[in-house]
């Protein structure tokens, strides 16, 4: 009879005594963005628009067909996020993208310099659209933060 050993999965966190990589963006800023992204995600994406029963009943059919096509794209929380991220300095925007990539992939904290360098090379004027258009970006940011030893729970506790 053969015994099957369960392999322990590698942990995604850094060692408690390991130095945390320096981020250009403040932990509180990332946590604010994560909270707002989750607020946006919580919107009822399947509710029907209250004004019209069909998008084709609008006055201007061309505007309806060429418009954003999604009632939540103009949600105030999304507009707030777009303006907030767009106003961040370039280094902080690069950190956001790098954190999302770090959290999205099977990366480890040691990958941070390479991931950040790749994000810096890929940075463009479309960073806001890229981040806000990425499904699960709030989860990816939180996971990227955790990989680097940062936590939104820690930043909330520090504010008390």
Automatic annotation (TrEMBL):
Disordered, as annotated region: 47-67
Pfam families for this protein: DUF3775
Protein name per its UniProtKB record: DUF3775 domain-containing protein
